[in-house]
Design a protein that fits this description.
single chain, 218 residues, alpha/beta, Rossmann fold, 7-stranded mixed sheet, 11 helices, 7 strands
């Protein structure tokens, strides 16, 4: 049996935080919304604890945030937090890539640290693009060959990580700038540069987990 995010969250032994970029991710997401402009609706696909989403939603009550995750346990925990914190413009539901079943479009679709765990990453990209409204933008991280090398080097002490990143290690879901462009018909751009992230930050320097965004023509 492989790694299960539902089991991970159901155990309750997890802390809220962004898996890539940490506390900086809320600042970056807000900067990205400013860059896109005229943002009324944001979707976060594979939101996990939704740390950045909660933070930005609280500061931007006029923007609606629809957050989705494959693990019902974290969706339930996020709903409880939204009620407790009285954040009314953020909603949570269960959805799984590559076929979310979500029947609407969003000005911004945000998918960080998620495609690593999806077998058919190209189908997932097409689904994320479907959810992106004309004139909107899709932002995401993806696994590449550098991440594959890292995943293949995980040892016995990293058993959970090795199971979680098994698809990457096997090379089953790797992407590249060129492949993203071919799948979406639009060229990706560097997300970290767009949000003015610190170029010396570890997550920016990490070559195996690039973050990009793609604009959809209006």
């Amino acid at each position: 049996m492989g790694f299960s995010w539902e089991s991970y969250y159901d155990d309750g032994d997890w802390e809220r935080g962004a898996y890539v970029g940490g506390d900086d991710m809320a600042t970056h997401l807000e900067a990205f919304l400013d860059r896109v402009g005229d943002v009324d609706a944001v979707a976060s696909i594979g939101c996990g604890p939704a740390t950045a989403e909660f933070d930005v939603a609280a500061r931007r009550p006029d923007v609606s945030f629809a957050c989705y995750d494959a693990a019902p346990a974290v969706v339930d925990a996020n709903r409880e937090k939204a009620r407790a914190d009285d954040v009314e413009n953020v909603a949570f539901d269960v959805a799984t890539l590559p076929d979310t079943g979500v029947d609407r479009e969003f000005d911004v679709v945000y998918c960080m640290a998620v495609l690593y765990f999806v077998r058919d990453a190209e189908a997932a990209l097409r689904e994320l693009w479907r959810l992106t409204a004309p004139g909107g933008a899709l932002a995401f991280t993806y696994p590449n060959r550098n991440m594959q090398s890292w995943a293949q080097g995980l040892g016995d002490d990293d058993h959970d990580k090795r199971e979680a990143f098994a698809l990457v290690a096997a090379g089953e879901n790797l992407l590249s700038y060129d492949r993203i462009r071919d799948v979406l018909g639009a060229s990706p751009r560097n997300y970290w540069t767009a949000v003015d992230a610190d170029p010396d930050a570890d997550y920016v320097q990490r070559s195996g987990s690039p973050a990009v965004y793609v604009r959809k023509q209006a």
